[in-house]
Amino acid sequence: MVMLGFDLDDELEFQDIDLLSEETYRGEGDEAAAEPLRGRVRVGGPRGFEIPESMVAEDERLRRIIKRGDRRAVYYRVYLGIDFITHDGPRLEAAQVKLTLTADPAPVTLDVQPSAEGTAEKIERTVKVAPKLPTPVGDAEVGEFGAKVEYETTTLFVKGLGLEGSTPGWEFTRVRGRRLEGSCRLELIVQARRGAPVTVAGSVRAQAMMGRLLWRYRGELPGKLELKEYKLGG
What is the value of pTM for the model shown? Predict the structure, then answer.
């Protein structure tokens, strides 16, 4: 079981996303895989707000990201929650969340969180070694023995994508021996031209095993978010 340990904001209203098959019908026995995946992914948001200078002044991470004093730019924090639900149906192998930020000129993603989260695993391998021994007619391999080699690797189960662009996203991967499930809060810091509203739309893709075949599914995030700079009295 892969639990994505991020708190979900209570103000987010979560909705089930119907994931429609992107595959063509493959023939008899594939009727179930061609049906939409329901009840497996819930999404809350996206939501967003302009980041005021007072917040930047109090947050060290924001100070590293945001260029203060640039009157031509406005900065937004965009966030959403995603919830993967365990089900008796097809096993989710991977999923991707992609957002599309639209404005004129195009906005830029300055930060994606989480950027990379994973689990460290110790891998042990047995290496067979055949030693060479000197003989009157030259070296010869005599027998073999096993030597255990241990190393550590990190398997990422969520990775942020799309820095410095206008199509940021996240990729979730099932860790070996565990299900892809749990909740995660996703956040962006976005820079846009002052006076240019930003529209945020998005989609979810997922890959699931049905029998021995990998099926691909897609669903759209409900509604679009429009980001506008805050104006006093408006």
Answer: 0.77
C-alpha 55 chain-centroid distance: 26
> In a 10 Å sphere around its CB, with 0-12 CB exposed, 13-18 middle and 19+ buried, how is residue 57 labelled?
exposed
**Structural contact between residues 31 and 228, judged by C-beta atoms closer than 8 angstroms:** no
Beta strands 73-84 and 182-193: pairing type?
A: antiparallel
Domains of the chain: 14-116+157-227 (2.60.40)
Distance of CA 80 to the CA centre of its chain: 12
Q: What is the residue type of 45?
A: G
Length of the chain: 234
Evaluate the omega torsion of the peptide bond into residue 46 and state whether it is cis, within 30 degrees of 0.
Answer: yes
For residue 55, the 8-state DSSP code is: H
pLDDT per position as a tens digit, 15-45? 999 999 987 655 555 565 578 888 999 999 9
Amino acid found at 44: G
> Alpha carbon 67 to chain centroid distance?
27
Strand partners, 198: 227
Residue 104 to residue 98: CA distance in whole angstroms: 20
d(C-alpha 139, C-alpha 80), whole Å: 66
Q: Nearest-CA neighbor of 182 among 190, 174, 192? A: 174
